[in-house]
Every structure is written in C-alpha cells, then in structure tokens.
Amino acid sequence: MIVDDDVYIGNMLEEVLIKEGYAVSRAYSGTEAILFLSGNKPDLALLDLMLPGLSGEEVLQKMKYIPTIVISAKIDVNDKVNVLLGGAVDYMTKPFDTKELLARIAVRLRDKKTSDGAATLIFDDIVVDTLSHSVTVADHDVHLTKTEYAILKMLILNRARVITKSDMLDSISSDTPDCTESSLKIHVGNLRKKLKAVSDKDYIESVWGIGFKLKTE
User: Fold this and answer.
1) Domains in the chain, number
2) Do 13 and 104 belong to one domain?
3) What is the pLDDT of residues 74-119, one digit of tens each?
4) pTM of the predicted structure, to 2 decimals
C-alpha cells in the first residue's frame, strides 16, 4: 500500500513495485488511508508523513500490525526517532534510491513471513501448532475455542508488549465475529483458566485500563 499525496512519486513507486511482482493499492490522504484500512490489511505500507487530512503520524497509529516504511522529506532526527518509536519498521528520506527501497521492502516482508508464517509458536511451555490449530501446555493437549485460540496466538506473536483491547478486537474480529468488546474479557478469562488448569501457571496478565500481555518474568 502506498500512502502519498504526491502523484508523481506515487506513480513512480507503483510502476516500480508492479514490475517487481507486487500488487499495489493507493491512498492520497490520511483520511483515505484510514478508510481503506477499515476493510483491508496490506502486507506492507509505504507512508508519507505530510498528508492532507490526517497526518502520517496519525495514520501510523492505525497500522500497528502492518509493517510500515515511512518515506518522507523530513530529515530531522527527532522526526525519524518519533515515527520509529511510534511503530514504523523503517524510515527513508526523500529523495531515495529505488533499489535500496526494494531491498528494504524485501527484508521487511521476509521478516513478516518468518514471524507470521511460523508453523510452531512457543511461549514458556505453551506450544501452538498453527497448521493444525492445536495447543499443548507442558505436553498436555488443551482444547480452545476459535476465539481463545486467536487470542493466544496474537499474544504469543506480540509477547514483548501490551495489546490494547481495541487492537486485539481489530486483529481477531474477521476470524471471530462472536468476540465483542463486552465479551473479550470473558474469552480471555476462560483462556487463562484453561491454561492454568494444566500447569498451575498464570500466563496472561491484565494491564488495568489498557489490555493484556503475556507474563514474561
């Protein structure tokens, strides 16, 4: 996905990416990008910061689970630091070399495939087989509902941070339409009980007012 109001740069990027075999979508403003993201999840985004409507920084907050490379004319170090800390995976300053950009895109998509496409996810003594959708804890089978499985998988893939309730709902809603804001806490509670029943460990902690995370200590 290309998010840039500069038609010339956007057209150039689209042409280069299509030649490399990528499917490309476009947005010309921050507002248009948010509208597109409400029904689509691109594998990677190229995001300008100085956009009409919502700024690139505001759009970035809605792209937490999409690898995003910021491409901007802003050269101040603070701008770069802020967007990288805000969730961007990379930052390139305009003007840029297309060969370098293509290399960075390839690396980020490779990293995404490695993390998202792993057949087995492991956390502590929890093992999730993403091919069979089976879960074991300390070598004992644990039977989870579709929603519980989606929550556990998301927690393991994002083990290093707190996942907000809204982010969790956005991520799993397409696969688990039965999970709503009012029922999310119940689903997480049931998941915690099932995991704890096997090994007597509490793997999930609630961060009051924010969301949930795996206990890493």
Assistant:
1) 2
2) yes
3) 888 888 888 888 888 899 998 899 999 999 998 888 766 555 555 6
4) 0.55
45-47 and 68-72 beta bridge pairing: parallel
The domain that holds 76 is classified in CATH as: 3.40.50.2300
CATH number at residue 187: 1.10.10.10
